[in-house]
Design goal:
One of its GO terms (biological process) is amino sugar biosynthetic process. It is found in: Cytoplasm. InterPro entries: GATase_2_dom (IPR017932), GFAT (IPR005855), GFAT_N (IPR047084), GlmS/AgaS_SIS (IPR035466), GlmS/FrlB_SIS (IPR035490), Ntn_hydrolases_N (IPR029055), SIS_dom (IPR001347), SIS_dom_sf (IPR046348). Its EC number is 2.6.1.16. It comes from Thiocystis violascens (strain ATCC 17096 / DSM 198 / 6111) (Chromatium violascens). The chain is of the alpha/beta class. The protein has two domains: 235 residues, 4-Layer Sandwich (Glutamine Phosphoribosylpyrophosphate, subunit 1, domain 1), CATH 3.60.20.10; 341 residues, 3-Layer(aba) Sandwich (Rossmann fold), CATH 3.40.50. It has 18 helices and 27 strands. Strands 3-2-4-1-10-9-11-15 form an eight-stranded antiparallel sheet, covered by helices on one side. The protein has a seven-stranded antiparallel sheet with strand order 5-6-7-8-12-13-14. The mean pLDDT is 92. The chain binds 6-O-phosphono-alpha-D-glucopyranose (G6P). The site of 6-O-phosphono-alpha-D-glucopyranose (G6P) has 15 residues, from helix 9.
Length: 610
């Protein structure tokens, strides 16, 4: 995951590019670079290891004049974070480029290019693109044609920004599998990985489609589609303010964040998958080696993040074959515990600043865990800084106190972890390919569930006057029932409790009557028949059942039973898919009750005190 930005203007562009990089830093921040073509046609480049701020300091000390330039903030996949691996990459003073994505066939291209005399200065997959481009330029192609030719043989994902050092009047961009937008100005044009990067200079954008190649001059933009045909893409005016965390057209941040989940999941997956495999490097440079020695996993977290951990414990044992223990951080930190041999200690936190989770991490390090890993949404947080390995969820800023997109991206991150750890245990290539395929399909599945919003809003009316609700699930859906109950209680103030359905008869059945709605998470899995028997127990006692079930579940609506049908999915990703309608239910109940959805009473987003 990297961020790219480029500009062709009639004014100096270095400051614009650096501000764009700063806004893209959530996409990667291990190194950064910028290249600007100066008025006499010399290309000047600055690259630094570390954050964009460091690059800015370098450019302040040694300014980069010029009106055409590209810049990049990197999240390393191929080649360690280092200045020589930072973009932009140059080939023989002729062409320069920035890239976001992964070129999967880089090894074979590199071998061919080496044999043809190209000298490589980095370990990146990207560098093969700049050499291929050079070959096309010296064969006499224009820049746009050179990009067209050079990209033909690329496999994988890319968003590219490209300059021919001998041509000060063109900037070329290409998109395949990685996002890229064009910013439209007056006498100037821009490219970037997202609109936020360009909001200080324009609010008019062209969103490139898969396979598009675009040629930008100061005056105009021309675009060709994947078949090489010229196309017109609409210019859209963005109403988003330069401040990134805006509600937009949504009534509440929570609703916006629920609807952002397909994108948040796609962003969290980006750069982490190659072909049918999960990249261990996504967790850090040493990850593969460290993971190969792991024999047990302990996961500690708070609140919603704890629920993600509980789901992961089912995955770890069933898929990876690793014993996995999960505990809330506030308990873990204050009790004596045995450190398993060769164990990985995982913390999960949206903010990375939760006091109990941080304390648990420090305790685990002191008590002899081999390796610590943080799954976190905030790159510069304490948890990230203090852990050996890190997997960032790229959910973007989450403003609503009730966590939504942070949770589903945590689940995605935990599935990635399960796959990578499982590889050293009992998960074979076919198994890993299945995980990868399901993850790739997940954003689309979530879109389908979001289409149920109106149906769930109508359903919410039946909960508004209730004082208690029971949530039931079995297996890995039990933690999802817990998460559904937590959402409802924190924003609607309706008391909600979750139970594993098999425990009903050991107590909660005593509470069942017509005033106690029972929400059930019922995917079509091996436990369905058992779950249905539990539901009959509720029904026989006059309880009102609201069952979230996928299309394959044979269950009739009728007296006391409302069935909400979800799209068909797979056991593996069911926990993520079934979370979304429960979020929507809680949201709509809270709206109907008129509570402060985004800032519910007595709660806070980041709990930095004990
Ligand atoms: C607070 C938030 C929750 C969150 C929990 C843990 O309670 O309101 O949304 O799940 O803290 O926070 P963390 O940032 O560690 O995930």
């Amino acid at each position: 995951m990297c961020g790219i930005v480029g500009a062709i203007a009639q004014r100096p562009v270095a400051a614009i590019l650096l501000e764009g990089l700063r806004r893209l830093e959530y996409r990667g921040y291990d190194s950064a670079g910028i290249a600007v073509l100066d008025p006499v046609g010399t290309l000047n480049r600055a690259r630094t290891l570390g954050k964009v701020a460091r690059l800015s300091e370098e450019v302040a000390a040694q300014p980069l004049p010029g009106t055409l330039g590209i810049a990049h903030t990197r999240w390393a996949t191929h080649g360690e974070p280092a200045t020589h691996n930072a973009h932009p990459h140059i080939c023989r003073d002729r062409c320069v480029l920035v890239h976001n994505g992964i070129i999967e066939n880089h090894e074979i291209l590199r071998r061919e290019q080496r044999a043809a005399g190209h000298r490589f200065t980095s370990e990146t997959d990207t560098e093969v693109v700049v050499h291929a481009l050079y070959d096309e330029l010296i064969a006499g192609h224009t820049l746009i044609d050179a990009v067209r030719q050079a990209t033909v043989r690329l496999r994988g994902a890319y968003a590219l920004g490209v300059i021919d050092i001998q041509d000060p009047d063109h900037l070329v961009a290409a998109r395949q599998g990685s996002p890229l937008v064009i910013g439209v100005g007056f006498g100037e044009h821009f490219i970037a990985s997202d609109v936020f990067a360009l909001l200080p200079v324009t609010n008019r954008f062209i969103f490139l489609e898969e396979g598009d190649i675009a040629e930008l001059t100061r005056e105009r933009v021309r675009i060709w589609d994947r078949d090489g045909l010229p196309v017109e893409r609409p210019v859209k005016t963005s109403s988003v303010a330069a401040e990134s965390a805006e509600r937009g057209e949504y009534r509440h941040f929570m609703l916006k964040e629920i609807f952002e989940q397909p994108r948040a999941i796609a962003d969290t997956l980006q750069g982490r998958l190659v072909g049918n495999r999960v990249l261990p490097e996504a967790f850090g440079n040493q990850a593969a080696e460290l993971f190969s020695a792991i024999e047990a996993v302990t996961i500690v977290a708070c609140g919603t993040s704890y629920h993600a951990a509980l789901v992961a414990s089912y995955w770890m044992e069933a898929i990876a074959g690793l014993p996995c223990r999960v505990e809330v951080a506030s308990e873990y930190r204050y009790r004596a515990h045995v450190v398993p041999q060769h164990a990985l200690f995982v913390t999960i936190s949206q903010s990375g600043e939760t006091a109990d989770t941080l304390a648990a991490l420090r305790l685990a390090k002191a008590s002899g865990y081999d390796t610590t890993l943080a799954i976190c949404n905030v790159p510069e947080s304490s948890l990230v800084r203090e852990s050996d390995l890190v997997l960032l969820t790229h959910a973007g800023p989450e403003i609503g106190v009730a966590s939504t997109k942070a949770f589903t991206t945590q689940l995605v991150a935990l599935l990635l972890l399960t796959a990578v750890l499982g590889r050293f245990q009992r998960l074979d290539e076919v198994g890993e390919a299945r995980v990868v395929a399901l993850l790739r399909a997940l954003p689309g599945k979530i879109e389908e569930v979001l289409a149920l919003d109106d149906r769930i809003a109508a359903l919410a009316e039946q909960f508004v006057d209730k004082h208690h609700t029971l949530f039931l699930g079995r297996g890995e859906q039990y933690p999802i029932a817990m998460e559904g109950a937590l959402k409802l209680k924190e924003i609607s103030y309706i008391h909600a409790e979750a139970y594993p359905a098999g425990e009903l008869k050991h107590g909660p059945l005593a509470l069942i009557d017509e005033d106690m709605p029972v929400v059930v998470v019922a995917p079509n899995n091996a436990l369905l028949e058992k779950l249905k028997s539990n539901l009959e127990e509720v029904r026989a006692r006059g309880g009102q059942l609201y069952v979230f079930a996928d299309f394959q579940v044979p269950m009739e609506e009728g007296d006391g039973v409302t069935v909400i049908r979800l799209p068909e999915t797979d056991d593996l990703i069911d926990p993520v898919v079934f979370t979304v309608p429960l979020q929507l239910l809680a949201y709509h109940v809270a709206v109907l009750k008129g509570t402060d959805v985004d800032q519910p009473r007595n709660l806070a987003k980041s709990v930095t005190v004990e």
